[in-house]
């Protein structure tokens, strides 16, 4: 049987934009149930860490689509058929979401770092303005190296824009650039995370705004090292990384792979079964467990998707060890 007679979905490898999954006919592993545990209120300011290439950014984009008011008209389109949709949570599309992706921050000397950090924060603000065109905020006169002041001024403008405390701040890859600096320039790392460092000042600004402007935050990253260094600046954050309810929030379980693989690969044409593919992938991509109480392990999702992309391209049952 050829691919011409088997309807396959597109592989989402490298695509973190959740809002395009359905319109682009991308295969989708439903991780939406994790929203339920965030919504239960164990913490308004959770931090959820995972290794690189595990699907954290896609999850952040899904959160944004679920909670942001500007996506209200697309709620049915984006979430019908998902586990979280069936729960009918009243909090969906009830916040103004601003999100930052700190993986885009460039490292180098301090001045370059300050400028790049400002640009990334301003990029998040520009995205907010695109979703809310009636929100007016002019920051052209601000110091282009002072991201904390930029965000504080944004918050002041937001308070005038919205009477309710409904701002949800999402930060993806919070530690990406900080970890790189830590590995190359320890003195610079100490400088940016010190009491007067720009990074600690930025998070301290967020903390100060939780009293009357920011309702919730959600932070992802790889390591808790930078978080520990920022404790006094953002000591309201709760690290929920090892809670068993989040063990499967990123990465793929075997049950999920059994559903996903036939959507991406013509297994009959390969002359194998879905279980054959999983067994070949298991020693290479499996074995991650993030809670002592969890009863399942997860596979690295990006590596799985990359491997399945190559299998589909080559139409051959390939060795996963060659695709790391």
From TrEMBL:
The family database entries (InterPro entries) matched by this protein are listed as:
AAA-ATPase-like_dom, P-loop_NTPase
- Where is the AAA-ATPase-like domain positioned along the sequence? 12-231
Cross-referenced SUPFAM superfamilies: P-loop containing nucleoside triphosphate hydrolases
PANTHER family (alphabetical): AAA-ATPASE-LIKE DOMAIN-CONTAINING PROTEIN, CONSERVED PROTEIN, WITH A WEAK D-GALACTARATE DEHYDRATASE/ALTRONATE HYDROLASE DOMAIN
Q: What is this protein called?
A: Predicted AAA-ATPase
The protein's organism comes out as: Succinivibrio dextrinosolvens
